[in-house]
Fold this sequence. Notes:
Elements: E1 2-6, E2 9-15, E3 23-29, E4 35-38, H1 45-57, E5 65-68, H2 74-77, H3 80-85, E6 91-94, H4 95-103, H5 109-123, E7 148-150, E8 155-158, E9 161-167, E10 176-180, E11 185-189, H6 209-221, E12 227-230, H7 239-261, E13 266-267, H8 268-274, H9 289-308, E14 312-317, E15 320-325
Amino acid sequence: MVTEVYPGIYLNEIPLPKNPLRAINSYILVSDSGNLIIDTGFNTLECQAALMEGLKELEIDLKKTDLLITHMHTDHSGLAPVLKEHGVKTIYFSQTDGELFNQTSQKRKSERDTFFATLNRIFGFDNDSASRFGKEFGSRLDEPLEFTPLSEGDKLVVGDYCMEVVDVPGHTPGHIGLYEPSHKLFFCGDHILDGITPNITFWGFDQDILATYLRSLNKVREYDINYLFTAHRKIIRDHQTRITELITHHDERLQEILDILRGGRKTIAEMAASMHWDLSYKKWEDFPHPQKWFASGEALSHLEHLVHTGRVERIENDGAYYYGLV
């Protein structure tokens, strides 16, 4: 379903079947000189049909259209190769997330397998757990995708809109947004969402990704924004209040972890199983594997933030990781 949400800017809601997110907001900016699509949906027949139906409704000529991917997650990037095949001119990513997206290609299978094997070991999952991600996440691309990298301060012009690229890492290491200062518009991908909290997961022991995300939130707090165009759920009109709510959420998460650790050291899986999650399953064992994966990653990003800030220690023993209070 396509809806005009601002003059010349349309929201194409793409259903995400069997996924708790329910749908993704793909935005289409339309002008006589050219168009821009922001984010796509999974590489599934259902998502492709919805995306193409919206483009057809608006009579979009893909040969006069560019595509911007806010970040590498497949609900945002999955149909980029399909749009390329249909004639879209240029595909934009950040350099970091473009490389991460291409790492999922079949041609770079060894890199992908190494990545999953490493995370399986850290999370405490068996090594075939990656195969338990269902078809609802879409098929992988065969070849790495050619893309044009964008950096902070780069500009994209569509009709009357001149948008600046803003680096907002945290949800992924190379997440970007677009800010239009004249109209006070911000296309934020998954950086800020209404009603749900973006997943902040583990991206390596060498970085405090939660601190990175919190810095990105405070960065966007300073922008003058009337419309925050989110990738899921509702468009946000008061971004500063929502940012305060998100920061409070992560403060409460950190305190929850500290309270749990007062009972003794925990592995990552034990911590994830002990935390509260807004899901309908009664116990950890009932969680589908993808939800266990996302929960474990989020638990670990918070544990590592507490390690980096000196409140928790990480102990490695026979390849397993334990966390305890300092």
